[in-house]
Amino acid sequence: MALIVQKFGGSSVGDAQKIKHVANRVIETQRAGNQVVVVVSAMGDTTDELIDLAQSVAENPYNSPREMDMLLTSGERISMALLALAINAAGASSRSFTGSQAGIMTSAKHGDARISEVTPTRIREALDDGDIAIVAGFQGFNKDSKDVTTLGRGGSDTTAVALAAALNADLCEIYSDVDGVYTCDPRVVSSAKKLDSIDVESMLELAAAGAKILHIRAVEYARRHGVDLRVRSTFSTDPGTIVYSNLKDGAQMEEPVVSGVATDKSQAQITVIGIPDVPGKAAEIFTAVAKAGANIDMIVQNTPTGSDVTDRVSDISFTLPKADLQRVANALEAAKESLGYRELELDDSIGKLSVVGAGMRTHSGVSATLFGALAKAGINIEMISTSEIRISVVTSLAQLDEAARAVHTAFELDSDVEAVVYAGTGR
User: Fold this and answer.
1) 3-class DSSP assignment, residue 233
2) Domain ranges of the chain
């Protein structure tokens, strides 16, 4: 008897009919001879609606992070109870559990807690009794504060992988509105090709580069704990894509040069102009950025200019999430006198394009193909960043989708069959 963890996102449980559909799929999995644990997100846009509601009663609701976590975790509790009711009404037996009841212990940081321990005693008891266990995703419990916490947006993926690891599950299935992991977002490139399998390192780079099919923390957790993932659609019987945690069972004996192309439209850019070219200034700048609580992605510093050593200055550009743009700009403006720069330039109309593939380690010519495709399409490059299996470039937001299509074709990733998106949100 296999143990399977299944996670269903908001688009999969968006209304009563979809919940009944999920209930039937879960029951089919159990009747095939498996023990089943199900992790659910909040229905549809429930989380966004709860945030809007909070903002209607408080100008800055996140000033009360504990209460926001209490509010936002209610969305997943609604989903878990409704799914359990649907499963029981369909003739099977299930029990629902909150994150704390499922044994998911976290750090105390509200809104972005980290999982510290998973002790799924009650889940194991339910499975041993022949029940399907339904768990509210996105949430946990801190032992010291005794408060409910949330794992950050997309945290239900992480919940599912953490439970799969703790239960030593045979497989963790992540269900969404597309048939698997594609060579590019099928909403951007309709000719994107579905991958039968992908190594976890490439999947991690794709998630970090902006691919929305899997949450990056979930992929990191799967890699660290050796959990194999299957990404598939709630709305079809397609077997989906296996994300292998290691190259076992003959999986991916020869990786493709490029596994996929990812785009990220959530980035902004700050350029600090006229920084004195003296040791320690870059450290001062990024210390100020760190104190503002922002995560930096790409950094470029130009060659210093100036006729005299004492007059030499340089510029530093870096990218960060748009949500952090103004906060970081304010922090740098407040420290302008001590940092000694001339001015700041802010740009929230950039996009990041990345090509990812484990095969890039051993194949030459990837950079030439990438930059050649962008040049042919008339796409200007503003920044470049590389790793062993990824090349990322920053370009204008208006040209990002066009750039993705050009690069996708250049690497011969196009499929003859148009990709299907069943719901439209990607989660």
Assistant:
1) strand
2) 3-252, 267-347, 350-410
Query: The tokens of 344 are what?
Result: 């700041």
pLDDT at 213: 85
CATH number of 267-347: 3.30.70.260
Tell me the pairing of strands 104-106 and 94-97: unpaired
What backbone phi and psi angles, to 5 degrees, belong to 300?
Answer: -135, 130
Joined together, the tokens standing for residue 222 give 């799967």
CB of 133 closer than 8 Å to CB of 34:
no
Q: Span 350-410: which CATH code?
A: 3.30.2130.10
- Token pair of 16 as six digits: 């009563």
Tokens (6 digits) for 167: 């239960």
Continuous H helices in 274-361 = 281-291, 325-334, 336-339
Are 3-252 and 267-347 in the same CATH fold? no
Q: Which two tokens stand for residue 299?
A: 């950094």
d(C-alpha 260, C-alpha 356), whole Å: 6
**Cα torsion 102, 107, 112, 115: sign:** negative
252-282 confidence digits (pLDDT tens)? 445 568 889 999 999 999 999 999 988 899 9
Q: What is the pLDDT of residues 79-109, one digit of tens each?
A: 999 999 999 999 999 999 999 999 999 999 9
User: Cα(121)–Cα(229) distance, rounded to whole angstroms?
Assistant: 23
Q: What is the dihedral of CA 135, 138, 141, 142, to 10 degrees?
A: 160
CATH code for the domain defined by 3-252:
3.40.1160.10
pLDDT tens digits for 370-401?
A: 999 999 999 999 999 988 889 999 999 999 99
Element containing residue 385 per DSSP (H, E): strand 383-387
Longest dimension (CA), the chain: 82
Mean pLDDT, the chain, whole residue set: 91
d(CA 108, CA 115): 10
Please tell me what DSSP assigns to residue 209. T
Q: Distance between CA 297 and CA 320 in Å, rounded?
A: 6
Place of tokens 């009663």: 57
The type of residue at 235 is F
Q: Residue 68 pLDDT > 70, yes or no?
A: yes
The backbone torsions φ and ψ at residue 257, rounded to the nearest 5 degrees and listed phi first, read -60, -50
Quote the percentage of the chain above a pLDDT of 70.
95
